[in-house]
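Notebook entry, structure prediction.
Reason for the run: the old model in the group folder had no record of what sequence produced it. Starting over properly, with the input documented here first.
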Amino acid sequence: MFANKNIVKKVLIPAVLLLIIIIALTVHACWSRGDSSSVGKKEIEEIQIDENLRNTIDSFVTKTPAIGKLGLMVYDATAQKEVYSLNEDSLMSPASCMKLLTSVATLNKLGRANVHKTRLYVSGKVEDGTLNGDVTLKTQFDPFFNCDSLYKLTEALNTMGIKKIEGKVVLDMAVYTRMDHEEHWTIGDLRTRYLGLPLSGGAKLRTEMIYALSRLGIKVKKDDIVYGRLRYSKSKQIGEIRTPLCRSINKALKNSSNINAEALLYPLGYTKNKNGNFRNNGCLSLRDFVEKELKMDADASCRIEDGCGLCPDDKLTARLLVNLLNYVYKKKNMFREVNNGLPTSGTDGTLYDRLYAPSVKGKIKAKTGTLTREGGVSSLAGYFYTEDGHLIIFAILNNQCPVMDGRWWQDKLLSRLCEISKTKKGNPS
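New structure, fully documented this time:
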């Protein structure tokens, strides 16, 4: 019994004291480096917003009332403080600013390194130019995989000396039905001739596969070109075409491509339910992102019917768009990806012919949105830097307003803000 007490005194007590010292040193080091969350919070609290910015917005909104309905929020991301807001929690049509939500949710879920893969496989042996086995084309959701891509991929069969296929040509598609108009879209909203083959439906891919083989002089019975699944254990990959997912995101943001934005819903929905309707499940994933990542009530802050914003029933709040862009700002790699993808004022994308005056050209990065239906919708959401290095986030939603009037109002306000804050030019690192 006394021996046990001696062990406690000699071993356990010194060990506890040592542990306390280590913890104290660690805490002190964190405070010294400013790693403590409370220190970070205190530093943010000490950063002040530019009152001149707030007063300018208030004066502009008062003296230049917007036509129709307006949702507006301006936020200082550097200070993490609101600058100005008006009807910021009103559900309004975002038009193509919906593509911001789709792009960011996809980046968050799948990562910028994710790629679409389209692969070609063969099974069996080649004897005297005849393949006694199967050829399988396995596709995913690549909106850029077109006829030329298919021709390039099938040339691997020529390299193997194949001139005849005695087995099957199997089309293994992630989705066999063609991407089509959402029920509320109007004819012409989706330019189906630009659809990639994996999203054009099984019939289209089958027709193109018949032609691709015939142009190479490879004989196969048309009835032997079938839909099915790849048999991995008996097949060897002979070719692959890879397309970065970020290519779709860049097109959706910079060029406001409806097809590329809708295409993002497929891999997003696939991660939610591999056996469901990928496009519909993609919309559900956007709601999940709003709830879980933005920590917002999805019922109160959004209505999501598609991924591109063409549906007039799509609704977002200005606060949601600001919170979304602030979420991006806090993630360095995502911020770089999204910022590079956004149109630049007076320079490229859908802003190439807007905000081109010397005082504002090249200084704003923002996503545009336009709908001529529902009385007219124009939206704009993005970033700009002030002279003192503060990053300003803004979201402007003009509804029930002629599109050109909405654009004029947005451009006038942002030009004024850039003039009074002497906005810096250049992309954030």
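Summary: Residues 27-40 have pLDDT under 50 and may be disordered.
The old model has been moved to the deprecated folder.
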